[in-house]
């Protein structure tokens, strides 16, 4: 502003040095505090580690990595090794053609062979003629991965190494498209070739910082798609795999608020889009993909458009798989998973029920486009992955015939609906031991996320099964802001609706206690990353509802973070949280729920936080300051109230030098 004194360079540098020093002193203080406290839990840690290792050994065989089938060849990865098995060698189990006896499989190469002993394989793509394999390797301590292209043969050799690669797909036998990642952003797409005139060239650059670029191949491998997505809008460019050197063609220019994805089948483009009302996913197709596709044609009823399928209200499209004559949709409604099978031959839609305990699924990687069977795994936090197949010909669901591990029979799954402040019904999924008596006396662990339209992670975890066996109740609150009930469920819980997620969480925990699932003094709340916003907010508004709070790399300083545009994700995240720099109303709204901003002297629950020293997504400084302010508020409250036996909460921070914000290996998660 006019008349404002401009600070000198010297003053700015002094401020930065002071801030760095403050950060280092805070970190040193917390590390010292952790080193003093952690030995207290040594015996408990030892017991838990032994139990988890026992459970992991019992169930690890059942949760092997998916198989990639190319004709008679099946590729798979186990323990850092890439295997190749032949279907006609009799190495397949009777029931599932991708369950392989590893003793008869050939090891192509291992991660250690490539000199990456501390990395794990994140992604595998095989060229159409199986001459090349591209894999991405990622270490625990980095967000970025390295892509290695192997020339397959009697002795596989390294053809090329691409640092900081994110996604990659084969457009032809020797043509690979890939994106690179820098500061958590992917904005450049490159093409590289491996035979004759070897060369690499830039084919696409995204200019808008809110958009993230990734690559995908249609199931029939006819097109490679360049997908540029923000949190609410998308744009797709097509590369014709028959002519991979030609420039990409734009499908539809980005339109604010419209998301779309492309599939292809028998010379027709299928477009999965949110365009039109309601703004949920619907499948449409066009007869002629050679002309520029105009989404407006769908609503104007042009002859070359046809509505194939529209989602029901409050339904989440989890994933879909396109086959030559059928399309299978994995759907979720009020926490229940089910399938809808669309037949392109009979033009019918067949709903298929799945087991009531099913919460997560994983498709077989790269299923053959012409297959008559779709293979997948189902799991829940307390049910190890179990294999299923859906036969299009027989129109039935087949469960794994031979049970490789003990069946989980003593766990009961309950679905509840909590009425929120505005009368919205919020789904809750509850797991508990069938044999447990007096559930109101049992400890309860509540989980929440509620951001970015992402569902709560409900995949199998050994520690969740251990808790069930020890009498705990597990509850998963599918609050607004998440994606469990479709895109509108996310919209109702982001930006100026963020408080609805907090009201939902409060209603869920209150209902659980009313229904006899534990009580406040035996209740803990767990959240990770952006889930820390709602969990931390509840801690400020309703601390009496819970006794303990467990946070992993939590986002607890929303306001200060969203004011710092130099951070890698701030611009991109404005579609989720708003822009407090340009909107004063938005600033006041964020301030009303931001965990850090609303700490006050009161009786807080005990808090345990795990953070990572080099976390690029959630700045450590915000967590350090949050812990310091929270501890001071709890002590201030205790000093004001001198009641006999006054309870002072434990507020503990474990800052780990290793590890990153994203999912980690079994060994790393075991240590945590």
Automatic annotation (TrEMBL):
One of its GO terms (cellular component) is Golgi apparatus. Gene3D superfamilies: alpha/beta hydrolase (3.40.50.1820), Prolyl oligopeptidase, N-terminal domain (2.130.10.120). It is found in: Cytoplasm, Cytosol. This is Prolyl endopeptidase. It comes from Thryothorus ludovicianus (Carolina wren). Pfam families: Peptidase_S9, Peptidase_S9_N. GO terms for molecular function: serine-type endopeptidase activity. Its main location: cytoplasm. Belongs to the peptidase S9A family. Residues 459-638 form the Peptidase S9 prolyl oligopeptidase catalytic domain. Serine peptidase whose precise substrate specificity remains unclear. Does not cleave peptides after a arginine or lysine residue. Regulates trans-Golgi network morphology and sorting by regulating the membrane binding of the AP-1 complex. May play a role in the regulation of synaptic vesicle exocytosis. GO terms for biological process: proteolysis. SUPFAM superfamilies: alpha/beta-Hydrolases, Peptidase/esterase 'gauge' domain. Residues 102-396 form the Peptidase S9A N-terminal domain. Keywords: Cytoplasm, Hydrolase, Protease, Serine protease. Coiled coil: none annotated. It is an enzyme of class 3 (hydrolase). The keyword Nucleus does not apply. Its EC number is 3.4.21.-.
């Amino acid at each position: 502003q006019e008349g404002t004194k401009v600070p000198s360079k010297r003053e700015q540098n002094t401020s930065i040095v002071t801030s760095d020093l403050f950060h280092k002193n805070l970190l040193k203080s917390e590390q010292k505090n952790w080193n003093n406290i952690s030995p207290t839990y040594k015996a408990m840690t030892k017991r838990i580690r032994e139990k988890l290792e026992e459970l992991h050994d019992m169930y690890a065989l059942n949760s092997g990595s998916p198989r990639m089938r190319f004709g008679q060849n099946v590729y798979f990865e186990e323990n850092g090794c890439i295997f190749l098995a032949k279907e006609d060698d009799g190495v397949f189990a009777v029931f599932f053609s991708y369950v392989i006896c590893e003793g008869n499989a050939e090891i192509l190469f291992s991660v250690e062979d490539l000199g990456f002993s501390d990395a794990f394989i994140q992604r595998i793509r095989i060229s159409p003629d199986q001459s090349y394999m591209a894999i991405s390797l990622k270490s625990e301590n980095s967000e970025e991965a390295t892509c290695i292209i192997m020339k397959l043969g009697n002795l596989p050799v390294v053809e090329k190494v691409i640092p900081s690669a994110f996604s990659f797909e084969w457009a032809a036998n020797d043509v690979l498209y890939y994106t690179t990642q820098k500061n958590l952003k992917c904005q450049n797409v490159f093409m590289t070739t491996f035979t004759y005139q070897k060369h690499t060239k830039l084919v696409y650059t995204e200019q808008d910082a809110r958009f993230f670029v990734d690559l995908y191949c249609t199931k029939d491998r006819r097109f490679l798609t360049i997908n540029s997505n923000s949190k609410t809008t998308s744009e797709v460019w097509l590369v014709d795999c028959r002519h991979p050197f030609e420039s990409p063609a734009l499908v539809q220019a980005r339109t604010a608020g419209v998301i779309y994805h492309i599939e292809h089948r028998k010379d027709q483009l299928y477009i999965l889009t949110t365009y039109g009302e309601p703004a949920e996913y619907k499948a449409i197709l066009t007869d002629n993909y050679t002309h520029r596709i105009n989404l407006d044609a769908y609503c104007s009823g042009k002859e070359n458009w046809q509505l194939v399928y529209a989602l029901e209200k409050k339904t989440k499209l989890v994933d879909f798989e396109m086959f030559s004559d059928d399309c299978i949709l994995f759907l979720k409604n009020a926490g229940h998973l089910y399938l809808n099978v669309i037949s392109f031959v009979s033009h019918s839609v067949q709903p298929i029920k799945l087991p009531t305990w099913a919460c997560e699924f994983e498709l077989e990687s790269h299923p053959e486009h012409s297959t008559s069977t779709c293979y997948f795994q189902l799991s829940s936090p307390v049910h190890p992955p179990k294999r299923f197949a859906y036969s299009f010909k027989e129109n039935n669901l087949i469960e794994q015939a031979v049970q490789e591990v003990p069946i989980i029979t003593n766990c009961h799954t309950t679905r509840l609906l909590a009425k929120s402040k505005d009368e919205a019904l919020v789904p809750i999924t509850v797991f508990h031991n069938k044999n447990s008596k007096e559930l109101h006396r049992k400890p309860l662990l509540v989980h929440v996320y509620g951001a970015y339209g992402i569902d709560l992670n409900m995949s199998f975890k050994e520690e969740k099964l251990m808790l069930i066996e020890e009498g705990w109740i597990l509850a998963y609150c599918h609050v607004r802001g998440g994606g469990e009930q479709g895109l509108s469920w996310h919209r109702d819980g982001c930006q100026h609706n963020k408080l609805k997620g907090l009201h939902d969480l409060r209603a869920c925990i209150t209902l659980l206690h009313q229904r006899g699932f534990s009580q406040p003094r035996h209740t803990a709340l767990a959240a990770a990353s952006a889930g820390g916003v709602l969990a931390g907010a509840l801690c400020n508004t309703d601390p009496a509802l819970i006794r303990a709070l467990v946070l992993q790399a939590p986002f607890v300083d929303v306001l200060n973070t969203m004011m710092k545009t130099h951070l890698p994700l701030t611009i991109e995240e404005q579609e989720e949280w708003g822009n407090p720099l340009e909107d004063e109303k938005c600033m006041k709204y964020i301030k009303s729920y931001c965990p850090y901003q609303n700490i006050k002297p009161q009786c807080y629950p005990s808090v345990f936080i795990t953070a990572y020293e080099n976390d690029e997504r959630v700045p450590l400084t915000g967590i350090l300051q949050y812990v310091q302010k929270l501890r001071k508020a709890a002590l201030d409250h205790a000093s004001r109230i001198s009641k006999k036996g006054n309870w002072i909460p434990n507020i503990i921070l474990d800052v780990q030098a290793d590890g990153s914000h994203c999912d980690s290996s079994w060994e790393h998660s075991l240590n945590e």
